[in-house]
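Notebook entry, structure prediction.
Reason for the run: the old model in the group folder had no record of what sequence produced it. Starting over properly, with the input documented here first.
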Amino acid sequence: MNFNSESGEIFQGELKSIKVKENREKKDSRLIEIPFFIIKTKNPNPLPPIFLLDGGPGDNPSILQEIKSIVPSLYDFTLKSDVVIVEQRGNGLATPNLTCPGSFNLPLDEPLRIEKFSQVYRDYINGCKEFWQEKSRDLSSYNVISMADDINDIRKSLNHDKIMLFGGSFGSHHGLTYAKNYPKHVDRILVDSPEGLTHTVKLPLNVDRILKGLSKMVSRDTILNNKIPSFIKMVKRQIQSLETSPIKVDVKHPETNEWVQIVVGGYDLQLITASLLGRKEYRELPYRYLQMQEGDYSWLAQRAINIRVNQDENLMPVLTDCASGAKADRWLKLKKQSKKAILGDALNSIRFKVCDSLPNLNLSNELSSDFYTEIPIVLIYGSQDARTPPSNTQDIMKHFKNAHTIRVKNGSHDLFKEVWDEIKPVMINYLTAPNPKLFSSPAIIEAPVNFKVHK
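New structure, fully documented this time:
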C-alpha cells in the first residue's frame, strides 16, 4: 500500500499481523495479535530481511504508531533486504494493548520520597493488574522470551530461514534473546545502546561513573570550568542541601497552566538528574546546577511536577522488565551500591518495587545462562550513556566470536539524534555486506558536546 509520510513523501509498505498464543505453554490459551510493517526491497537477489525491534519496552507512542515519521529514514536500509518493523506484544497497535485505566498523582506540598512514590505506584499497578486479570489476560506471558517467540512466528509466516536483527536499548535485549534461543535463524546482529540479557536492572555505580565522566568534561570546557571547579562535588552539595532543606517553588501546572507551588527535595533532584544523565540532554545539567546554585529552581520544579501529575502506565513494560529482572547477586550488588552512590538507585526509579506483586515468570536464570556464538554482531555504544553504560558492551562481547564495536565519544542513549549522519552509512554498509564477518569501520565516532551555557 502507498501512504504519505509526515513530510508529504509517498512510500510503499504493508501493515500485516499474526495471531499467536498468549501463552504458548497452554493448549487452550487465548490468541493475541502482533502487528508488523514490511518495507520491501527492490533488489532481485535480496539478503535476509532486517527485523527492526523497538526500544522501551512499551514506548508510547510505539514504533508502529510513529510509522509515518520512521519510514523515510529506513528506506535506505532496503537496498538489499526487506525491513520488517515489529510491534511488541501488549503495546501500541497490538491486541490487547495493556494500557492501565486511570492515572496516579503524587502530592505537591511535600518533597518526593521514594517510600511514598513506591506505595502510590504499587497501588496503581496492582489495580491495573486486577483490571486485566478480570479480562482473563494471562499476564505471565508478557516477557522478552515470549516476544522472541513472536519474532520466530513472524519469521516463519514470511517463509524466511534466516533474519537480521537490528535493535537498540530494550530492542537489543529482545534481539539477543532471540539470537540465544534461535541462533540458526540469525544471519547477523546490529545493536545500539546495548542492553544485554542480564542488564535490565541498572547498577548505581555505573551511573556514578557516567556522572564522573561528565564532571571531567565540564573541567575541560573553557566556559564552564571557571564557574564550576568540580561538577561532581556540586551535584553532591545540591542533593544534600535539598535533602536537608526542601524548598518551595512556584511553577505552572502542566494541565491547568495555572501557577501552583511545589516542594522539591533531594530525591527529586536525584531522579531527574539520573533520567537526563542517560539522554542527550545531559549537556544542560551543568548549566541547570549553576542556576540552582544561584537560587533559581524553576527547571527542577517543572520537571518535578511533570512526574507527580496524572501519570499513567502500560502494564506490559512493567511485566516485561520484572520478568527479565536480575539474579540474586545483582540485586545484592544494587542494594550495596545504592547506599554509597551519589544518585542512589534513582535510574531504576520505582519500577522494580512492584515486581513481587505481579504474576511474573522469573526469567533471570534462563537469560543469564551462558552461551557463545559465531553470529556476527556490531555494537554501537555511547561513552556518556548512563542507561546502557559501556560496561554492557564489554559483557555482551564475551558471548560472540565475531564482535565489532563502535564507541561514540560523548554519546548518550540518544545516539541516532547525536550522530545519525555519521552512523547511518556505517550501519547500512554492515547490513548490506556480503560477508558480515569481514566488516570494518571506524572504532570511534565523536558526538559534539555543545554544553548549554546560557538561556
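Summary: The first helix runs from residue 67 to 74.
The old model has been moved to the deprecated folder.
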